[in-house]
Amino acid sequence: MNESSWGAAPPAAGPRASPDHGPASSLRGAAPPAPAGPGHDWGDPDRTRPLPFVPGPGGHQDDDRGYRDIRDNRDHLDDRGAARPSGPLFRDEKPQEPMPTPLSGSDNSPDSEKPKKKSAGRNLRAAIGVGIGLGAIIVASLFVYKPVFIGVIAIAVVVGLWELTSRLAERKDIKVPLVPLAVGGTAMVAAGYVRGAEGAWVAMALTALAVLVWRMTEAPENYLRDVTAGVFAAFYVPFLATFVALMLAAEPDGPERVLTFLMLTVVSDTGAYAVGWRFGRHKLAPRISPGKTREGLAGAVLFAMVAGALCMEFLIAHGAWWQGLLLGLAVAASATLGDLGESMIKRDLGIKDMGTLLPGHGGIMDRLDSLLPTAPVVWLLFVIFVGSG
Fold this sequence. Notes:
By secondary structure, the chain is an all-alpha fold. It is 56% helix and 2% strand.
């Protein structure tokens, strides 16, 4: 018994079955043959192929709903009646991952989903370590033996002059003679400590003359430019540093005056950095120093005034707290202007730092930028408030 005779009588009339339709077509007698298709092949059993399995959403082969969906031509219709594929069309094709959804209240940028972290801009660990080391050297030399501290000032002056003249030569081709500047700068600091302001002015004049003469040994081209830069360097670095020596020479509280000057400048810079980094929104001088903000300046003023009141009350002989408030305000202003002044020089030269001698800080000049213009201001206010000593 073959498959076509299961429970069915042979046809009594009607068109003769075509050989192409085989025994399966005799089940319906005179009915026309069903159209062949990918899911309904009523032809020869030898040519009949099993339906390919298309996995459903779960990918399980024991689910026969895939056959019914193919037969009824309903593959997961959505609410609008449109066909929606629920899985990959081919076995080696990976399903497309859904697009990330932006967070509520954010824009379409992927980076906006993650809060941006502020950067300090420098290696803080190295900066703190170097700062502590320099502070220990300064304090030890300041209170142990005064001439040793004068030597520390002279070394800082010579290194600062070397950094400045090197950058001028590299970036602007300005040839400033370093030898007369280094010798004259050291003499300026020593003369200020021994002979006072008069000795410092005489040493400054002799240093400028030495720069003019030294430059005569080379070609006359750009002579005026080079000697002008040399006189500027002599005034900017060693002459301003001489006022630290003048403060040290005061009796009986010379070291305390120098310590107050250093502490107020450092506290001003720290307050500007801390407040500006945390709350800074409004730029102070974006064309000169984009990192400085008005909020940072307010922090510098606040920190310096508090520190000034404490220092004048407890460190300086015959000092008063209200004098410290004025002193702190002046230090915050002069330190900020000094920092902006050196930033102008570095912008003109097209550099970020004057040197790389101090890790986390840059060069010596990058640390002297606030100290140098603040020294004459503090010296003058000390003279006004408590005398020259």
